[in-house]
Design a protein that fits this description.
The protein has 124 residues and is of the alpha+beta class. It has a domain of 59 residues. The protein is built from 4 helices and 3 strands; from the N terminus they run H-E-E-H-E-H-H. It has a 3-stranded antiparallel beta sheet with strand order 2-1-3, with no helix packed on it. Strand 1 and strand 2 form a beta hairpin. InterPro entries: DUF8199 (IPR058512), HYC_CC_PP (IPR058060). It holds the Pfam family DUF8199.
């Protein structure tokens, strides 16, 4: 749910730089690099020369109106259910007063021989 809210409110720009009819650069979140043809136009500013380059900017706006609700906006039945659910959920994970050891009174059998040494099975 949080990813849905994040992507629906995300806004970004896509900039494209064309030189003639050819796409030179596409940039998201940053400025698109130009092809250098604009620098010639500045150097020869006294000549009336048309620029062959153009920039396109597309702005994708995300949603900016989010509904914010609080606990007081809920009905009384919904408030009671929510508070009872939270209390029961918190009490569900209470710790035990002491650690329970299930095999505390169990005594292991007497070893007659060390089976690992007899069978020569070792962990390496």
């Amino acid at each position: 749910m949080s990813c849905l809210v994040l992507f629906s409110t995300l806004s970004f720009t896509v900039e494209k730089h064309y030189c003639g009819n050819h796409l030179v650069d596409v940039a998201i979140f940053t400025k698109a690099e130009n092809c250098g043809m604009d620098l010639e136009a500045f150097a020869t500013a006294n000549f009336e020369k048309k620029h062959c380059c153009k920039d396109e900017i597309q702005v994708v706006k995300g949603q900016d109106k989010l509904k914010k609700s609080s606990f007081e906006d809920l009905q009384l039945k919904q408030q009671l259910f929510l508070s009872a659910f939270i209390c029961s959920f918190i009490n569900l994970y209470e710790g035990l007063p002491e650690q329970v050891i299930p095999h505390k009174n169990y005594s292991p059998p007497n070893l007659v021989a060390d089976i690992h040494v007899l069978d020569q099975v070792f962990l390496i």
